Amino acid sequence: MKSLGKLFFFCGKMGAGKSTKSLVTAAENNAVCISEDEWLEAHYPNQIETFEDYLRLSRQIKPFVKTHVQNILNSGTNVVMDFPANTIGQRAWFILLCSEIGCRHEVTYLDVNDELCLFQIAKRRIVQPERALFDTEAMFTQVTKFFEPPTAEENLNIVHIVRHKYDIG
Description:
Strand order of the largest sheet: 2-3-1-4-5
Strand content: 15-25%
């Protein structure tokens, strides 16, 4: 029997560093990294102007992404998903994806305070000016209202990383 790949995914507020951590995790685990932002831009270029647009289009790609990721995992390849797992419902989708094929998972919870998230969002606007419309303090506040830290009741394999200070360098 061929072994399955392992699924890695991330929980953390907007600006916590999920995308950066996903690239590091992919490199460390010889994994394919799949980015929601890239899938959305490829399938719906320039169509996300509001948070509601994002939610609607994100829901539309999920069935295709799920099948694609399960096929990769079934081949024995590890997968890192740079998709948010910031609510119980989002995490349940990842768990369902894994349970349907019987693969292992690991969720990294980036526990970062609001001040540091906002600092990192401001830096990201400079590096990625195309995100300036979406990466705002108002959007952070709106999105953060829905954030739910992972709990033991969810039966997740959690790696908890706490960062509340600015990294120097």
